[in-house]
Amino acid sequence: MRRKHLIVLACFIVTLCAGVLLISQPAQAMKFFRPPSMLPPEQYGNLLIDLTSTKNKVLPVIFSHWTHRRQYTCEVCHTELEINMMLNSTEMTHVNQKKGLYCGACHDGMTAFSHQADCEKCHNQDPSSFQEKYITYVNRNPFPPTEYGNQIDWVESLQRRLIAPLRFLKEPLSAMTLDRTIEREVGTSVITSAVFPHQAHLEWMGCEMCHPDVFMVKKNGTENLNMAEILKGGFCGKCHLSVAFHLNNCNRCHPGIGSH
Ligand code: HEC
Ligand code: HEC
Ligand code: HEC
Ligand code: HEC
Ligand code: HEC
Ligand code: HEC
Which of these CATH numbers, 3.40.50.2000, 3.40.50.11710, 3.40.50.300, 3.90.10.10, describes 175-260? Predict the structure, then answer.
């Protein structure tokens, strides 16, 4: 082979390799960002609360987000009832519950079973106890499905009024609207921009659940907002790893790419 031909061949191979690399990049991104393994749908969002229980010789308390969020928006508990959005950080003792705080706001024997009886309904560490309840609930209500998390598309269920969660218990909070979708360019061709729709969130919560603690009130104002931090449970990962649709659903935030 002549030298000229060799050069042409070499150039061809380099171009081919670059092409293959470019095509396989999204797949690599997926591998690199493999989120934690998934729980069964009825266990996603369930918490085992143990700030005071074990210390006082009772079993930890089971709390299930999906059974409650079908009836109440996030802000009922996290704003009106002032329950922190962090496991084992709120003093939900019975002394406080008797004052009508936390679980006691509803578990008073009228709205829901009393916190002063049926101890084992809450002090129960068995997360699989929700399996039957979930199967019955999902069979009775044909929800639009999703692949991960609770496998229920909560956004569409709300839009189609298949659920009607209450916005408040006592203090009328009026739902806010903000038709502002933030598009965050990711600075790499590997993946499409990340999209943050304000309105889909405001159906469930008020501004204070994110501003100013989690995000700056300014586009691109939040520092270190990247996938590594999100996967550690920061920013979007605060909710989208534990309660809202799971990070595995790449395409719900990065429209146009496949799911993981
Ligand atoms: C009926 C009450 C209730 C509702 C409704 C509710 N939560 Fe919670 N949430 C709790 C409780 C209780 C905790 C645990 C707090 C503690 O242990 O201090 C919690 C904890 C959390 C945590 C922290 C989880 C962790 O592992 O640290 C997140 C995130 C969260 N909630 C998000 C949400 C979102 C998003 C919604 C709405 C879709 C929502 N919650 C609706 C009661 C509720
Ligand atoms: C905003 C009202 C509200 C708050 C706050 C609330 N619950 Fe509930 N909870 C309900 C309702 C309504 C039901 C279903 C009615 C029933 O079973 O009596 C329920 C049901 C339950 C159940 C039965 C299984 C299930 O999930 O359906 C458990 C366990 C439970 N709640 C635990 C808790 C604990 C623990 C807390 C506090 C950390 C809490 N709840 C806070 C309203 C509430
Ligand atoms: C509606 C749910 C619910 C029911 C029902 C319930 N508890 Fe609790 N209990 C809680 C929560 C939430 C805590 C705080 C858990 C934590 O932080 O570890 C708690 C904490 C406790 C504690 C630790 C001390 C304290 O007050 O924080 C004891 C003891 C206790 N419960 C006993 C009981 C007994 C006895 C019964 C039945 C008569 C009962 N509980 C029924 C939700 C419940
Ligand atoms: C679920 C979280 C969340 C909630 C709830 C939320 N925001 Fe935001 N908001 C964001 C994020 C994320 C950004 C973009 C921050 C960035 O790019 O650094 C943002 C940015 C903004 C901006 C800047 C827009 C721009 O173009 O610079 C305004 C204004 C804003 N939010 C107002 C509100 C108001 C008003 C509410 C309540 C009605 C609200 N937000 C509720 C997450 C939220
Ligand atoms: C405070 C909790 C919270 C935070 C923080 C949060 N989200 Fe959400 N997000 C939710 C809830 C709740 C929903 C309703 C759907 C669900 O629960 O699965 C939702 C819905 C969405 C939707 C709508 C999907 C659809 O089908 O229409 C998108 C997109 C989204 N979030 C992206 C983001 C991004 C991007 C961030 C970070 C910049 C973020 N979210 C931060 C709680 C949160
Ligand atoms: C809940 C929303 C959400 C989901 C789901 C999500 N991302 Fe992201 N992603 C973001 C946000 C927000 C950024 C930061 C954008 C920026 O740089 O401003 C980001 C950034 C990225 C980046 C750019 C590099 C970096 O580290 O920031 C890549 C690559 C990426 N995501 C890949 C993925 C993959 C692969 C999946 C699925 C396994 C996924 N993302 C799921 C919200 C999400």
Answer: 3.90.10.10
